[in-house]
Specification:
By secondary structure, the chain is an alpha/beta fold. It contains 18 helices and 26 strands. The chain is 30% helix and 22% strand. The N and C termini lie far apart (49 Å). The model has no long low-confidence stretch (mean pLDDT 92).
């Protein structure tokens, strides 16, 4: 069997849970609003959201969605329009998101930490005409200078229980607590519309809009902009309905209407948007919602509400494995502990398993795959692997500078095919052409990730193509160097990049954060010597720079792009 045939034989299917198959039945003609409405009919009295103690049932959230959709329609929102959501995690996010989709319009989520320049790019590029905005973020949106047909503002405090409202902005954390809130007079002067006033004013009677799931766009989530300006993946209703059914097939032990999940992952990011919000609303799960990830509050909520699922990022698990209060939760009772958005270091996995006696199921996904494409199967986790393709997804590995299929076990670029793959990059025909390639008449996504697949069908991550360092003709994976650095007992965080050099191509440079007690005691030479003992000579960093902290992306992973830009400056 040649390489291509072996990938297409899907050797990973044998590791699926009992009863799971590769084939997924995706309802024809079903839109995201249809899926959510079905869930409401079945679980109307069950809490859809718990927001700092306040419970909102599925019936209540549907009424709020319908009221807001009625208001949007009256304000002039039409099918095909774009609504930008510039919000922290809060019930209004869920309401605005699904109200927009109910009208056949599309959402584009904006990161709350974006600068006004980045906001300007996304508003203009997405053709947004409506902006739903947190009141504390409005000043930054206004500085973008982009004129909207309507700006609707809302406060995180609106849906808090009375006792929590007394705490006010303290719930928001230091990053947001001191931001300016527009007064009633300022709102009137600037023509801002109040979210809650719309909810109270309009009945839950939105117009009926016919949606073609395979053609109509549901969301324009933007990628992180690791190369150039961020670009949007075009995700249809069918993409989103598909991913819910695909994930459900892989985790048959998660029961519709019965699970409770902790929703602290930011909804503007595809991971939180799909795994926490969309999946929860579509399957009748209760989401315990957090505006900011306060560790103590999260641990308390897991015990109080008997959370059955917990999805996080590597930095969260890295913190929890050492945190003194992690013991509050009996992690063995949590049905599914998932991790994504970045590489999970082996040292974190080992310490977590020693501390909690539970397994982290690492997965993989992209904005372009509607959030998920791989996961470690239940109780069949493999160290240093992001798992196997989920039902409905075919995966293969080709040359990262060509199109030949690579033999099993060899490294190349990951390509994917499935119903959850995006349609295109929004208004980027050339980049779409480069990323979506044709193989035997089918559309495959070139992910830009360098991986390998073992004979069992488990996939292993090496690096992003753009993070590959070329040193004297050798290919060096930044992640491999970082893995070694993380094994040093006094290194807390690390980021590795290549610095351009005309003689050797790239010089390997490591940015290192030491544990507090080691600062001033460990030298650059000590770190280089440690690497020399644990790495091939050509992989050893030539430059070490100590930092108090490293730049992070929106979901908490080290931003190699920013480090690379610093090194090239």
């Amino acid at each position: 069997m040649d390489a291509k045939e072996y990938y297409l034989s899907k050797p990973w299917v044998k590791h699926y849970p009992e009863g799971a198959t590769f084939e997924v039945d995706i309802p024809e003609g079903m839109s995201v609003p249809d899926m959510v409405d079905n869930s409401v009919k079945l679980y109307s009295k069950k809490p859809a959201l718990i927001f700092y103690g306040r419970e909102i049932t599925f019936a209540q959230i549907k009424e709020l969605i319908d009221r807001f959709a009625t208001a949007l329609a009256d304000l002039g929102l039409k099918k095909g329009d774009t609504v930008a959501l510039y919000l922290l995690n809060c019930p209004q996010y869920v309401i605005a998101y699904f109200a927009t989709l109910k009208l056949g319009a599309k959402v584009t989520p904006i990161s709350p930490v974006y600068t006004s320049h980045e906001i300007k790019h996304q508003l203009e590029d997405s053709d947004a005409t409506f902006l739903v905005c947190q009141d504390i973020l409005y000043d930054n949106a206004e500085r973008s200078g982009v004129k909207m047909k309507h700006v609707i503002v809302t406060s995180v405090l609106e849906y808090l229980p009375k006792m929590k409202k007394l705490l006010g902005k303290s719930l928001l954390g230091k990053d947001y607590a001191n931001l300016h809130v527009p007064t009633r007079e300022e709102k009137a002067h600037k023509g801002l519309v109040d979210f809650e006033e719309l909810i109270k004013k309009y009945p839950p009677n939105p117009p009926k809009v016919k949606i073609d799931p395979k053609k109509d766009i549901a969301a324009l989530p933007y990628t992180g902009g690791t190369t150039g300006l961020p670009k949007a993946a075009v995700l249809t209703h069918h993409n989103m309905v598909s991913i819910v059914h695909q994930v459900k097939k892989l985790w048959p032990f998660l029961e519709d209407g019965k699970e409770v999940g902790i929703a602290f992952l930011p909804f503007f990011h595809i991971y939180g948007q799909v795994v926490a919000m969309l999946n929860g609303m579509a399957r009748g799960f209760t989401g315990v919602l957090f505006t900011t990830p306060d560790i103590d509050e999260i641990l308390d909520a897991m015990e109080k509400y008997k959370a059955s699922t917990f999805n996080g990022v590597p930095t969260m698990f890295e913190f929890l494995k050492e945190y003194e209060k992690t013991y509050r939760v009996n992690w063995k009772n949590v049905k599914l502990i998932g991790c994504g958005a970045d590489t999970l270091h082996e040292s974190t996995v080992e310490a977590w398993e020693r501390r909690t006696g539970s397994k982290i199921h690492e997965g993989y996904g992209m904005t372009e795959t509607t959030g998920v494409s791989h996961s470690n199967p239940y109780q069949k986790t493999k160290r240093n692997s992001f798992g196997v393709p989920i039902p409905g997804v075919r995966a293969a590995i080709i040359e990262y500078e060509g199109s030949k299929f690579m033999p099993v076990g060899e490294v190349g670029e990951l390509i994917l095919n499935g119903p959850n793959i995006m349609q295109a990059y929004w208004k980027r025909p050339e980049e779409t052409k480069q990323s979506l390639i044709d193989i035997d008449g089918e559309k495959w996504l070139r992910t830009g990730d360098i991986v390998s697949m073992d004979e069992d069908g488990y996939f292993h991550f090496f690096d992003r193509k753009r993070d590959l360092i070329k040193f004297k003709g050798y290919s060096v994976f930044a992640r491999h160097v970082e893995e070694v650095l993380y094994k040093h007992p006094q290194i807390k965080a690390a980021g590795v990049v290549g610095v351009p050099d005309p003689k050797v191509g790239n010089i390997i440079k490591a940015y290192v954060v030491l544990e507090s007690e080691a600062r001033g005691k460990i030298s650059e030479e000590d770190v280089i010597n440690f690497c020399t003992e644990n790495l091939a000579h050509y992989k050893v960093p030539k430059i070490i720079e100590f930092r108090g902290e490293l730049p992070k992306t929106d979901v908490g992973k080290v931003s190699r792009r920013e480090l690379r830009e610093e090194g090239e400056a």
